[in-house]
């Protein structure tokens, strides 16, 4: 069957670099880091004491304090980003919007870990009577979509995909297919995470996955640099409003970009260690789905976590997928400024890719001062300064534990 076209008409953003799209994008282009010392809890006993925390966030701007107390932080971030995206798309102004044709797919990689952690401590100290009635719904991953559906009365598909750090990309890609194949006309889709807690950071620290550059947080995330020593945890949410093209045109919506391709794959290799072939296959599947040739892509928003193995691996994957043309790509890691938002990464990075296409500019990869060419990291990574450039087609890569991969392809309208 002929697939329907899918366009992006709304954006919502909560991240360490800003609590709305305009602020976050401006800070990215300026190369401003959102990473600092952990303030959420006492991290002094951890070997990593830095993170990309969301700052000055007020959930009461979106829902009542009473309602907010019933759910964990990742749900707050997801709701806020979703409501921003809906407002940006102007959906509330559509008088004849068929809400049975509007759905929500917003996931999280980890979900309500801080609430689970705090409840566990409370139970140890005071017994089972300390478990609140909202503990379960307050920590379930699909409850972001549930809350947004209830708040807005959207009666289409409501769910949340969980696929570690590929979550946001998978939610967006799968939501697009809901529209392509006629199950919905509009989908609110993305990812959220709020797992900066002693248990969350301690778990990644125990794996030796995190940077220990505690004395200089703003330079700790340094993708493709020789001095990289691990990723920095971040938090927040990125949510898009996806819409069937004719539906958007009919109501006169602003269109940021068209989502023309989505590809997935599995490394089938190792639960945490990546392989280059799996991500390359995901990129190739996305290009095939978009029906474009590799040399039609100009910009890649890379997974680019700042780990020694992962950065080199992704570069190799791009070389497999793009061949000699990889040398002509502009490859950027916005995680150098936001840190790694885990399940929220694919959402915010889809937004950054869309804005790169919409504004014809690539954000920089900051902290890249000594490129690690010896490990094969020899592509154009837009070191330290944003670059005005022609971007007709951009791709956004996300990879996750378990060897799961996702790539989104956006085209300029």
UniProtKB/TrEMBL annotation:
Keyword hit for Transferase: yes
Source organism superkingdom: Bacteria
Keyword terms of this UniProt record: Acyltransferase, Fatty acid biosynthesis, Fatty acid metabolism, Lipid biosynthesis, Lipid metabolism, Transferase
EC number(s) given by UniProt: 2.3.1.179
Broad enzyme group: transferase
Residue stretches making up the Ketosynthase family 3 (KS3) domain: 3-412
An annotated GO BP: fatty acid biosynthetic process
Cellular component GO terms held in the UniProt record: cytosol
PROSITE patterns in UniProt: KS3_1, KS3_2
SUPFAM superfamilies per the UniProt record, alphabetical: Thiolase-like
Signal peptide: none
UniProt-listed Gene3D superfamilies: 3.40.47.10
Matching SMART domains: PKS_KS
Pfam families: ketoacyl-synt (PF00109), Ketoacyl-synt_C (PF02801)
Active site: 165
UniProt catalytic activity: (9Z)-hexadecenoyl-[ACP] + malonyl-[ACP] + H(+) = 3-oxo-(11Z)-octadecenoyl-[ACP] + holo-[ACP] + CO2; a fatty acyl-[ACP] + malonyl-[ACP] + H(+) = a 3-oxoacyl-[ACP] + holo-[ACP] + CO2
Associated pathway: Lipid metabolism; fatty acid biosynthesis
UniProt-recorded Gene Ontology molecular function terms: 3-oxoacyl-[acyl-carrier-protein] synthase activity
Protein purpose: Involved in the type II fatty acid elongation cycle. Catalyzes the elongation of a wide range of acyl-ACP by the addition of two carbons from malonyl-ACP to an acyl acceptor. Can efficiently catalyze the conversion of palmitoleoyl-ACP (cis-hexadec-9-enoyl-ACP) to cis-vaccenoyl-ACP (cis-octadec-11-enoyl-ACP), an essential step in the thermal regulation of fatty acid composition.
Family: Belongs to the thiolase-like superfamily. Beta-ketoacyl-ACP synthases family.
Record-given protein name: 3-oxoacyl-[acyl-carrier-protein] synthase 2
Organism the protein comes from: Aquitalea aquatica
Species lineage: Bacteria, Pseudomonadati, Pseudomonadota, Betaproteobacteria, Neisseriales
Gene: fabF
């Amino acid at each position: 069957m002929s697939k329907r076209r899918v366009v992006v008409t709304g954006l919502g953003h909560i991240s360490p670099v800003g609590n709305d799209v305009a602020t976050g994008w401006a800070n990215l282009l300026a190369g401003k880091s959102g990473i600092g010392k952990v303030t959420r809890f006492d991290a002094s006993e951890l070997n990593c004491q830095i993170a990309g925390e969301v700052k000055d966030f007020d959930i009461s701007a979106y829902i009542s304090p009473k309602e907010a107390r019933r759910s964990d932080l990742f749900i707050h971030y997801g709701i806020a980003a979703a409501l921003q995206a809906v407002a940006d798309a102007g959906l509330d102004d559509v008088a004849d919007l068929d809400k049975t044709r509007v759905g929500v797919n917003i996931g999280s990689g980890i979900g309500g870990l801080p609430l689970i952690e705090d409840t566990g401590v409370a139970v140890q100290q005071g017994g089972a009577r300390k478990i609140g009635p909202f503990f379960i719904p307050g920590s379930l991953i699909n409850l972001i979509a549930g809350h947004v559906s209830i708040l807005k009365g959207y009666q289409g598909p409501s769910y949340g995909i969980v696929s570690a750090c590929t979550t946001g990309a998978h939610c967006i890609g799968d939501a697009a297919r809901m529209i392509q194949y006629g199950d919905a006309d509009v989908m609110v889709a993305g990812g959220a995470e709020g797992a900066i807690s002693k248990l969350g950071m301690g778990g990644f620290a125990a794996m030796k996955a995190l940077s220990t550059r505690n004395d200089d947080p703003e330079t700790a995330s340094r993708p493709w640099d020789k001095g990289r020593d691990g990723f920095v945890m971040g938090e927040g949410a990125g949510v898009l409003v996806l819409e069937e093209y004719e539906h958007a045109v009919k109501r006169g919506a602003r269109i940021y970009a068209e989502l023309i391709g989505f590809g997935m794959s599995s490394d089938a290799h190792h639960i945490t260690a990546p392989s280059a072939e799996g991500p390359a296959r995901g990129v190739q599947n996305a290009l095939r789905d978009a029906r474009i040739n590799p040399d039609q892509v100009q910009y890649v928003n890379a997974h680019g976590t700042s780990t020694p193995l992962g950065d080199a691996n992704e570069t190799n994957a791009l070389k497999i997928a793009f061949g000699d043309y990889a040398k002509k790509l502009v490859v950027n890691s916005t995680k150098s400024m936001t840190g790694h938002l885990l399940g929220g990464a694919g959402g915010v990075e889809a937004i950054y890719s869309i804005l790169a296409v919409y504004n014809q500019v690539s954000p920089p990869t900051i902290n890249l001062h000594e490129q690690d060419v010896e490990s094969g990291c020899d592509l154009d990574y837009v070191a330290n300064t944003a670059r005005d450039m022609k971007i007709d087609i951009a791709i956004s890569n996300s990879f996750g534990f378990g060897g799961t991969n996702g790539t989104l392809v956006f085209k300029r309208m």
